[in-house]
Write a structure and sequence with these properties.
Shape: globular
CATH topology of the largest domain: Endonuclease, Chain A
CATH architecture of the largest domain: 2-Layer Sandwich
CATH class of the largest domain: Alpha Beta
Radius of gyration: 22 Å
Structural class: alpha+beta
Largest sheet: 8 strands, mixed
Helix content: 10-25%
Number of domains: 2
Strand order of the largest sheet: 2-1-8-7-6-3-4-5
Number of strands: 19
Number of helices: 13
Distance between the termini: 15 Å
């Protein structure tokens, strides 16, 4: 299950701390203090789930072990065709083990398909993530035929023997990433794949690297095209995408200051990213000033991109947020959620309609949604919202909508995916797939520093933004086949949305610790 992290509502430049008993805290995905008994329960549930533990990688000596790692088997050498058919969005959901209808869905994939030979002959790779289960991940590489190839792992949760993995597997290097703020987490989910022909690929995901996240949970992935190396004589600026994806990726990876990433930075600079049609949006822990291009990270970055690239939208188009964790927003909805967060995400609204914010719809599973999931209440292991927080903000129920995904065969597969978008009348104006939950830790918050208004980012996060202007060269994405102006964008939940009834309440993780 997702772990919880606490952030003090009165966070200041002189006070960075975590207190499991503080009443002004917010949770996203991790609680740094392992002394907290509730958090310990969450961690145990997250890494155990309903499945038996994967065998040790040293025990893998025959194909008889494959079912312990790969729950959904799909034909090999088909992923390149599947990726080509997904254009121009290149957006997938993960297969759901207990939902056979997803196994053959064109826009559903397994972890193994990311390494399908049809995509290229893998030379080396980087896995950037939060929770990494060593045996499961190495099992995936083993069955893909890549266990002996160089692998760099950056992870955010200390567990198992990852710190010493290179002693047994010298081709693998693992590095724990500790954010500069005690309450922050390394929450990014990203893959870099290098191929023997000199090309590479980038994958931005919402899934941790352990079995449960690839089993019965709804996850999302964006997979780039195969990115070819540039000719040796090319100028540095050549090969950038219209969205400046390469530049933003270099900025993000450089923040780690890891020598092991230097060869990758060099490779990226010499790679042609011109085919990339999405923006990379990130959060890096720190304090950031506004520049001529807005704030560089968090919701401030979203505000700039929406104002610059979104089609002008009527104010009756809601902002729809869907996440696997909700933060501590306080007793007043205007403090952050309907204040700075919504203000950033409603940029793009027609200027003459900006005086009033659009509606905010939040999709988060109700208790009944989870109870009826494939794994029963344990299906809520990835939903760490706590009862003590909800008691202080029951006004939130007014914004909440149930998890319904019958059309994509995932109503019983609880969502660990995080998406944000804005639509009206079957017209989708923009879409974000990201690791960032609906919280201050995920998106940052405004504060004062030396009498200047700055944004403070707590977590490492990464996501991609789809704008029709760059993806389909239109003003919006079609959401219904009756509109053939663009290929239908593959939304994951059912529309119209299903609002909470007066009897509904959001699922709270406390029920799994009693």
């Amino acid at each position: 299950m997702e772990k919880t992290d606490d952030i003090n509502e009165n966070f200041s430049k002189s006070s960075v701390h975590s207190d499991a008993t503080n009443n002004e805290q917010e949770e996203t995905d991790v609680q740094p203090s392992t002394s907290n008994s509730f958090s310990k329960t969450c961690i145990d549930l997250k890494t155990s789930g309903k499945n038996e533990k994967s065998p040790l990688i040293s025990e893998l000596d025959s194909e008889s072990n494959i079912d312990d790692y790969i729950k959904v088997m799909v034909p090999k050498e088909k992923m390149a065709e599947k990726l080509a058919a997904s254009r121009p969005y290149n957006y997938f959901l993960t297969c759901i083990t207990s939902s056979p209808a997803t196994h053959n869905e064109p826009l559903s994939i397994t972890f193994q398909e990311i390494f399908d030979p049809s995509l290229g002959d893998l030379e080396s790779s980087v896995q950037i993530n939060f929770v990494v289960e060593e045996n499961w991940l190495l099992g995936q590489y083993y069955f893909a035929g890549h266990i002996d190839k160089p692998l760099l792992i950056l992870y955010g949760w200390l567990s198992g023997t990852l710190p010493s993995i290179s002693e047994k597997h010298p081709q693998i290097s693992a590095h724990f990433i500790k954010p500069s703020y005690e309450i922050g987490i390394h929450h990014t989910k990203m893959m870099l794949l290098a191929y023997k022909d000199g090309s590479m690929r980038v994958v931005v995901s919402t899934a941790n690297l352990y079995e449960d996240d690839w089993h019965n949970r709804t996850q999302g992935l964006w997979i780039s095209e195969k990115l070819d190396p540039l000719p040796h004589s090319s100028e540095k600026k050549f090969g950038e995408s219209p969205t400046k994806f390469r530049n933003d990726l270099l900025i993000y990876l450089s923040c780690y200051k890891l020598p092991q990433l230097q060869p990758w930075l060099t490779r990226i600079r010499k790679t042609n990213f011109a085919s990339v049609n999405v923006f990379l949006v990130t959060s890096i822990p720190g304090i950031y000033n506004q520049t001529s291009t807005g704030y560089p990270h968090g919701h401030g970055r979203i505000a700039y991109l929406l104002a610059k690239h979104s089609a002008k939208i009527n104010n009756d188009s809601p902002v729809v947020a869907q996440a696997s964790s909700l933060g501590n927003f306080g007793r007043n909805k205007q403090d952050w959620l309907c204040g700075e967060f919504l203000k950033s995400f409603c940029q793009g609204t027609k200027i003459d309609q900006l005086e009033e914010n659009p509606e905010l719809f939040i999709i988060y599973p109700s208790h009944n949604n989870v109870e009826n999931s494939h794994d029963g209440l344990l299906g809520g292991g990835c939903l760490p919202y706590q009862n003590r927080v909800h008691k202080k903000q029951r006004w939130l129920n007014h914004f909440l909508y149930q998890w319904r995904a019958d059309r994509r065969h995932r109503s019983q597969a609880m969502p660990h995916i995080k998406t944000y978008c804005r639509w009206r009348d079957n017209k989708l104006f923009w879409f974000i797939l990201t690791s960032a939950n609906l919280s201050k830790s995920g998106w940052g918050f405004m504060t004062a520093e030396n009498k200047k208004r700055v944004i403070r980012n707590i977590n490492y996060e990464a996501g991609v933004v789809f704008f029709p202007k760059f993806v389909t060269k239109t003003h919006y994405f079609s959401m219904d086949e009756s509109d053939s102006s663009t290929l239908v964008f593959p939304l994951l939940y059912d529309i119209p949305l299903t609002k909470y009834t007066p009897e509904d309440n959001p699922f709270v993780i406390d029920v799994l610790s009693t």
